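Q:
Got a chain?
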Amino acid sequence: MKKTPFTDIHIALGAKMHEFAGYNMPIEYSGIIDEHMTVVEKVGVFDVSHMGEIWVKGPRALAFLQRVTTNDVSKIEIGKAQYSCFTNKQGGIVDDIIIYHYEPDKYLLVVNASNIEKDWNWLVENNIEKAEMENASDKMGQLAIQGPKALATLQKLTEIDLSTIPYYSFVIGHLKGSGMENVIISNTGYTGAGGFEIYFYPEYAPYIWKNLFEAGEEFGIKPIGLGARDTLRLEMGYCLYGNDLNDTTTPIEAGLGWITKFADGKDFIARDILEKQKKDGVTRKLCAFELQEKGIPRHDYEIVNDKDEQIGVVTSGTMSPTRKIGIGMGYVKPEYATIGSEIYIKVRNKNLKAEVVKPPFRKTNM
């Protein structure tokens, strides 16, 4: 298994470790519920160094990215970030990504850990514009500092006024005590609790970790594993690649029409297929639901109607740590995807009533 710059620290702290996307990653420390609530109420730190980073540079970078991503890259100002996705020739999602406009003619793509090699090969294969590319995944570490006390914690380590960084924006700066220049400090987040992500060279990882935890001690800072990362993103209704998105699901089916731009001159891969889906409709839609009875929905559980006919499948599900009810997402026939629809989740051969709702499940101040 691969290691992140923090793997030895996780093991020393007694984290429950498990393989994820080829990496030895912490699943939990003090328990998923405790870690989840730490992020919601205080501040937690996630090691997300397993994520992939790919630079796309040069005078043909924009033209290339416009063709291989669904969102309108021309709208990203320098210092801004954009959520987007790659689509294959059938319209399925190769990966969902974040694009950072770093400098003129220079972009950073942050891709899912499990898709680094796949994404790289796909980009190389489709690079007819001959844009310059660099897979920097092994040369960058990344931490996510999340929660209502994240700003106060990280602010101790930088002279940049973090309160001036809008959502989906970033700055380049220095972290005190680490000696590290050119740290990317980003406000994107995957928890709905507010906070920042920082990108840095791996050799600075031990100093950054030590300084962060000293800065956040007064706020009850804790390391957080992938288990709570999953429950936090699900409470917000955020998609997870491999569960809610994959090579066979399209952005229109997944409710990601808002990152699928049919602007003049943006001839991205499978545009004709997705444009037709938007016009004519789809045969399934991703919806969010809350159980009305006691139970926990899980990935791949059947979704049925009141006649016990299968109408879909659960893609993500859990017991909400903040709501104390079963919540989830899944693909269903379009007529069952409207808010307020009554559906049933088959849990251990028992059909539990659920209601289709609009996410997030957890109310936030963001």
Notes: Helices lie at 7-12, 32-41, 61-68, 116-125, 150-155, 205-215, 226-236, 271-280.
